[in-house]
Amino acid sequence: MTTDTLGVGYEVTIERSFDGPRALVFDCMTKAEHLARWWGPRMFDVPQCESDARVGGAIMIEMRGPEPYGSNIVRGEYLEVSPPKRLSFRLRAFEGADGSWGIQHVTTMQFEDGPGGTTLMTMTTVTEQVSDELLPALGGMKEGWSQSFDKMAELLAELG
Fold it and tell me: What per-residue confidence (pLDDT) applies to 1?
């Protein structure tokens, strides 16, 4: 589900099946060496990534895209870490010169065993804060997450 109104409270939900056990999928969601390989839409890479996957632990991802996107540091913290069942984190991105953030959202993921050793994931992202300049970017959030998860599926095939 995706809400229609861009702004605070904008919500994107994605249900996805991954070919791999929950423990491995959870590791791909929380370990820096894995996050760096799948995070971000196609044509983006991650030159730097840090992840301390515990409640209150920090996450930092540098997303680098082609022009005109450039690099963007994403920072946040883990709110819930319950391997391999549930994960929640708050992320902030597009830091302004004044220290404010262009966007902040909370993402929650639930993982269930699927048929044949697969993992069923339900992810919901809710926007808590967004600048006027970034309102249009919310419209691409579902596609961006979907492309990221495509990349993660490819990584799981390599790791599996």
Answer: 44
